[in-house]
What we know:
- This protein has about 325 residues and is α/β, with parallel strands linked by helices.
- About 40% of the residues lie in helices and about 15% in strands.
- It has helices at about 15-30, 45-55, 70-75, 80-100, 135-155, 185-195, 215-230, 230-235, 255-265, 290-295, 305-320; strands spanning about 10, 35, 60-65, 105-110, 160-165, 170, 200-205, 210, 215, 245-250, 255, 270-275, 285.
- A six-stranded parallel beta sheet has the order 2-1-3-4-5-10, sandwiched between helices. A three-stranded mixed beta sheet has the order 11-8-13. The chain has a two-stranded parallel ribbon with strand order 6-9.
- Its EC number is 1.1.1.271.
Amino acid sequence: MARDLNQAIFVAGHRGMVGSAIVRRLKALGYQNILTAARDELNLLDQVEVQRYFQGNHIDQVYLAAARVGGIHANSTYPADFIYENLMVEANIIQAAHMNGVQKLLFLGSSCIYPKHAPQPMKEEALLTGGLEPTNEPYAIAKIAGIKLCESYNRQHGRDYRSVMPTNLYGQNDNFHPENSHVIPAMMQRFHEAKLANAREVVVWGSGKPMREFLHVDDMAAASVYVMDLDDSTYSKNIQPMLSHINVGTGVDCTICDLAETMKRVVGFEGKLVFDTSKPDGTPRKLMDVSRLRALGWQAAISLETGLANTYAWFLQNVADLRVK
């Protein structure tokens, strides 16, 4: 499909890890008219402000990457914030896009939408077939609502609002807070500090037994643009009206213990690993079935060790300015 490089593309959440990667990807492809708005310019929680922004800009496409995100600790500590803010942001943007004639939108969700004990690897059909992981249920419900918003606007108004569900993401511009971050940035920060301090050990939360899949954010950005750019006939062959979301991942997982060993090697920490079994493990296994995306012609290109090495190199260059919120 030939790209119109002059289309006005609004990337919501452009300062976040995924949003910034999408902006980089779009620029690399030659897109000339990428619209972004910082939080002090546009409050995505304010419906009036969002409507005004869309009215004032002739937007052709929207990448909805804005979200409040965090790891197990953050989700457990701030459940009301996670469900409220994510519901408001996605509802405001999707409604404003529709009201202002935006035909194409891509909503970025999360693999946590699937039941805690979903058969592995998790297929798109597993959605709403069982109970969610309690530690991040409010966030997951908000993301499920986003999928259903897109489906509903497609059914009622004929819009082309697509949804992609990434597995666990990591990479530059991640949140490196030691408590409120996801597993890879939190672990990287911990190993780095232990290396500098010549510590004898690093403590890793949980038993180390859960299985997780990790996708570099640059791969996620590439997949997002790929799915957005698919022509209608190719896309519709692999999508059902009531099953419109697509999994994005590598199709390969590893134990948290294996991740820690790889991180130890990448960072260059020479001490030992200690697993704190008093901390929660979360879902026993999370592996995405990515056969639908592969059938559409895309697959991940960055290995875990390569991605971690690239991320650590970026971390070292930016450690003084990292987000720690």
